[in-house]
Amino acid sequence: MSKKRVLTGYRPTGRLTLGHWFGNLMNMLALQDDYEAYYFVADWHALTSDWADTSGIRKYTEEMVLDWIAAGIDPAKATIYRQSDVPEVAELTMYLSMVTPVTWLERVPSYKEQREQITEKDLSNTGFFMYPLMQAADITIVQGDIVPVGEDQLPHLELTREIARRFNNAYGGLLKEPQAMIAKEGARVPGTDGRKMSKSYGNAIFLSETEEETTKKVMGMMTDPARKLKTDPGDPDICPLHQIHKLVGDAADVAEFDRCCRSAECGCVMHKRKLAEDLNGYLRAFRERRAELAATPGYAWEVLAEGAARVRPAVDELMGNVRRAMHVDAG
After folding, report:
1. Which residues lie closer than 8 Å to 271 by C-beta, 6 or more apart?
2. Which of 145, 191, 281, 297 sits most deeply, having the most CB atoms within 10 A of its CB?
3. Distance between CA atoms of 115 and 117, rounded to whole angstroms?
4. CATH 1.10.240.10 occupies which residues in the chain?
5. Measured between alpha carbons, how far is 99 from 228 in angstroms, rounded to an integer?
6. d(C-alpha 99, C-alpha 102), whole Å
7. What is the Cα–Cα distance from 284 to 150, expressed in whole angstroms?
8. Distant-in-sequence contacts of 112-115, Cβ < 8 A, 24+ apart
9. CB neighbours of 255 closer than 8 A, spacing ≥ 6?
10. Does the pLDDT of residue 113 top 70, yes or no?
11. Within the chain, which residue ranges are assigned CATH 3.40.50.620?
12. pTM for the whole thing?
């Protein structure tokens, strides 16, 4: 029996962080063994919010592919491709727009939410408004069966299902209605300032940075804000430093720091030094592998080209059927 096809993608808007590692990369590694995995770099989606400055998209596309593979995603198992290498995504987006009422896009919760919260960027463009429509094209063009989503993304996938259903009612059952897979919730990784780790907050630890850069960030991390002196007992449960240490450190070491922090027998500086040592040790194999991959000029682009070629037969078959059904084929 053939495996079901799973699809997920990332926007290349910056380097991947420790939050990405524990939040989604670990899921992607597991899925590639159990499903026919399609992982794409959503460079067109990056344009919807970063249209005013697109200078980093190509660089971050290459870095993302290197990060994925260094982390263990296998190009022989997973089809890794770039969205813009499948121009039919734009064509299918246009066809889907013909059957999609404007009100369906307006009701997507994240649209208004992001317009209100992301004030440093101009999101009044049509491309950003049509973001969910292009997502529907991304999924249906490769006939994705399963899409891993968080609870907050379920409305996006339900919209894709509604669009596919309406298209099929008009032109025949050509598009699959994808099923949601509630992604296994990854560990919530705090940033260096205690907030959720995010590139936009400037509090991120990047997977590809040097050990020296990581150490400097860890040594400057926020700890228990109520612990002013070394002699004050601390609360590891609210300490960002401790939360990261639990993810990467030896369980016995973490337990000892938990104990001695609560009893004020050890200070935060000692704990920071140990976290920096353990975190760098945890990421060392990844960073060495990534450096090896980066030493081969053009390697990431070769992977993307191979992935695009692997996607091509399914795309050609579907789009041929779509054009014929809509009577826009060559005849």
Report:
1. 223, 241, 242, 245, 257, 261
2. 191
3. 6
4. 209-291
5. 61
6. 10
7. 30
8. none
9. none
10. no
11. 5-188+297-326
12. 0.91
Which tens digit of pLDDT belongs to each residue from 261-303?
Answer: 999 999 899 999 999 999 999 999 999 999 999 999 999 999 9
d(CA 207, CA 273) in angstroms, rounded, equals: 18
Six-digit token pair at 263? Answer: 């009893």
In degrees, rounded to 5, the angle at the alpha carbon of residue 133 between the alpha carbons of residues 127 and 134 is 70
Residue 69: CB atoms within 10 A of its CB come to: 19
Closest CA to 28 of 174, 216, 163, 181: 181
CATH class of the domain at 209-291: mainly alpha
User: What is the tens place of the pLDDT at every residue in 211-258?
Assistant: 999 999 999 999 988 888 888 888 999 999 999 999 999 999 999 999
Q: What homologous superfamily is domain 5-188+297-326 in, according to CATH?
A: HUPs (3.40.50.620)
**Position 305 pLDDT exceeds 70:** yes
